[in-house]
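Progress note, sequence design subtask.
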């Protein structure tokens, strides 16, 4: 009696098809805003997906080993300086800046490594601050060196980069910002917007003006972020009357 032919699995002969990667819930920087007369973007309602912001972090540097905090202070590498906003006309010399790498917890619940340029005079103190924020599991979405193109790019109103040195004037003024000296840090800007009159920056962050609705990444009086910066003698722009700069910490009060 002849044996029945062996069954052939179609799965064995048909190559598996991989599912396309899921589309990002929000692509930061993708949609320029119409401009106001003052050059800022139109203040528009916060998109629903950003009302309780919790976007994943893209790793630019290897994450910290064992989810333990790591912070380093080094002279600014030439390639980092070249992709930063530093230029000869800035009020601080390149040699007066330091390149930090810092561990932080993302909104995604994972530990990441960020980068930052600061004034050499405050570098070690800043590492201490972010060590305390890491221990408190204060969430940070992104931490990278600001690129020159960002200074002239059309506003999109959805940025949330935690950063320090940016060679630019103070908002709405001609004098240098404390950021231009590497003496100020903006933490989770979207969750802690700047306001002056009808201006909200980032322009899509109006949902975060309700400070009674506590969400991850928000900075409030007496919380771990304020305490960590206060411990090194820095002031918080959230205590100002006008403008109110909730994202902003500075060594010189500006």
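Output:
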């Amino acid at each position: 009696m002849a044996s029945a032919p062996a069954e052939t699995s179609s799965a064995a002969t048909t190559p598996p098809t991989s599912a396309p990667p899921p589309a990002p819930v929000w692509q930061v920087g993708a949609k320029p805003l119409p401009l106001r007369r003052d050059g800022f973007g139109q203040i528009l309602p916060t998109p629903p997906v950003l009302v309780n912001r919790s976007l994943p972090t893209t790793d630019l540097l290897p994450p910290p080993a064992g989810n333990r905090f790591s912070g380093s202070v080094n002279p600014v590498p030439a390639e980092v300086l070249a992709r930063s906003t530093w230029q000869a006309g800035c009020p601080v010399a390149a040699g007066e800046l330091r390149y930090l790498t810092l561990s932080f917890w993302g909104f995604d619940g994972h530990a990441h490594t960020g980068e930052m340029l600061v004034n050499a005079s405050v570098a070690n103190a800043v590492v201490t601050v972010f060590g305390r924020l890491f221990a408190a599991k204060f969430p940070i979405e992104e931490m990278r060196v600001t690129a020159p193109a960002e200074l002239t790019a059309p506003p999109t109103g959805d940025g949330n980069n935690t950063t320090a040195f940016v060679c630019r004037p103070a908002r709405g003024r001609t004098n240098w910002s404390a950021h231009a000296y590497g003496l100020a840090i903006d933490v989770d800007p979207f969750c802690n917007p700047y306001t002056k009159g009808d201006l909200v920056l980032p322009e899509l962050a109006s949902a975060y003006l309700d400070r009674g609705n506590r969400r991850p990444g928000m900075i409030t009086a007496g919380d771990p972020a304020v305490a960590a910066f206060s411990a090194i003698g820095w002031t918080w722009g959230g205590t100002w009357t006008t403008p109110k700069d909730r994202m902003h910490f500075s060594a010189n009060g500006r």
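The beta strands are 71-75, 97-105, 111-119, 184-186, 194-196, 199-201, 235-236, 244-245, 248-250. Work on this subtask will continue into the next period as scheduled.
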